[in-house]
Task: structure prediction
Amino acid sequence: MRELVILGTSSQAPTRTRNHNGYFLQWEQEGILFDPGEGTQRQLIHANLSAGKIHRICITHVHGDHCFGLPGVLSRMVLDGVEHPVHVHYPASGEDVVRALVFLATPGLDLHLHPHGAAGPIAPGVEVEELHHRVEAFGYRVTEPDGRTFLPDRLAAAGITGPDVGRLQREGSLGSVRLDDVSVHRPGRRFAFVMDTGLCDGAAALADGADLLVTESTFSDGDAALAARYRHLTAGQAGSLAGHGGAATLVLTHFSSRYDDVGLLAAQARATAGTATVIAASDLDRIPFPAHR
Ligand SMILES: [Zn+2]
Result:
């Protein structure tokens, strides 16, 4: 199963209805927690998610709204008796902050720290791209392995059914029938996560071809000067990332607490998002991963 659970959607200061950041991606067997802000442990409970489902924690940068929830989540995992390895990824320049947060957590986890300082792969199926914020920041891309889509009419014509389909997939051919004769290449789907940044090449690269793109949308287009000063995206810029990159679904989040209603931001993003479906996230939303295109 692949699904995104929104744990928090507020930037900088939480509000009565929006917790600090937090996003849980169920990616088949692996659970990836992105940017756990304050209160993430409790948001997991509201979302009916056990902390034991987390295998990997990916932090874009070490501003508090993206990482101050780390000790609470790690301590909860110890309390719950989690025994599997837990990997934490973060920008190398945030080492002191991450180590301080980990130091605060209850010891006992099989915890592995993985700082990164440049764009590229950081784990199987996970890559980072550099963002442009006031401190070093990286966005993440998670890619499903490529696969094959079988063509039912071709399979039927070749007389291949049942367990023989799996055998053909594993072995590449069955008698005179080759895998290519009855199936087509299916590129793996992509999840992309773009947090605090101005428009930059890294954000564009992450948006490119994303099936599900989560971006910050801190400010409305009317507050573009603030967005530029603090190196954040406006809603229109977030939409343009999805539009130019051909993303299928855009999830807006990380809203400034100055907006009671983010409907205007969603409309601004839709105006620039091309064919992308635009969702303004609310806390505890569950967003199923889009089907193959
Ligand atoms: Zn932030």
In short: The longest strand covers residues 2-8.
